Amino acid sequence: MFNLGGTQTLIVDHFAEAGAFLKESGGDETVLLPGKQVPEGTDAGSLLTVFLYRDSEDRLIATTQTPRLQRGEIALLTVKQTSPIGAFLDWGLAKDLFLPFKETKGEIRPGQQVLVTLYVDKSRRLAASMRVDRLLSAESPYRAGDRITGTVYAVKDDIGAFVAVDDRYFGLIPRQELYARLKPGDPVEARVTRVRPDGKLDLSPRKKAYAQMGPDAEVILEHLQAAGGILGVGDKSDAELIRTELSLSKNAFKRAAGHLLKEGKIRIYDDRIEAADHQP
């Protein structure tokens, strides 16, 4: 049986004007390898390793090119164009890979990179899906405190950002740790905060509190400068307001603001902070 969506070593059965026709050992059905892709010196009986997909007319066809994605794999692909029914992705072959609308997560735009897997649809065509979670493993080598890299594959406002760690393992940045807007396809660097009993990883894109305080203080100073020396968040401000204005948690804000106060760079009030050199 031909391995649609994967590589397979086949035997050259015969040649025709269009190219070489390949078959499995002991099989009768053949598949075309276009002439321009037949390696020099290939004869009848030669073994060739090819990738099998469908051409623009939905005919099964072989290629000696290696696509960026095969069945059972996950890969980050670039969106070439979108349409009301889905998107078309660059996967390294002449015919772009179709991503059906029902298999997308979030808004998709040309030029965006999306993490996808490859499947065969009901019409026996190859298609992409952003539902990669079924291929991710909960058996990672990581422990709490480890630094990881990964790719966001879904975002749910009430839960958080779902991350494919190393594009292989389950990870989640919980909602309370999200201080920047993420979208599917975004790369992330994060710290493992907890390994759950089921093996899935809880993540934070922030450093430990003592290491994060300096960068957070710089965020406050930058916003102060942009606001002309007065910022409408203070010691008694609501946590959601602080998150909206500064992309910081209330605890992180208070640590960083306290640090700046000790250095004499700001004044803190219940409803605002001011740059120390600001003239009322």
Q: State the end-to-end distance.
A: 80 Å
Beta fraction: 35-45%
Number of domain units: 4
CATH 2nd-level architecture of the largest domain:
Beta Barrel
**Name of the CATH superfamily of the largest domain:** Nucleic acid-binding proteins
Content-based structural category: mainly beta
How many strands, what sense, and barrel or not for the largest sheet? 5 strands, antiparallel
Helicity range: 10-25%
The Cα radius of gyration reads: 26 Å
- Globally, the shape reads elongated
The oligomeric state of the chains shown is: single chain
Q: Provide the spatial order of strands within the biggest beta sheet.
A: 3-2-1-4-5
Secondary-structure element string = EEEEEEEEEEEEEEEHEHHEE
| Integer average pLDDT | 88
Under CATH, the topology of the largest domain can be stated as: OB fold (Dihydrolipoamide Acetyltransferase, E2P)
Uncertain runs: none
Number of strands: 18
Count of DSSP H/I helices:
3
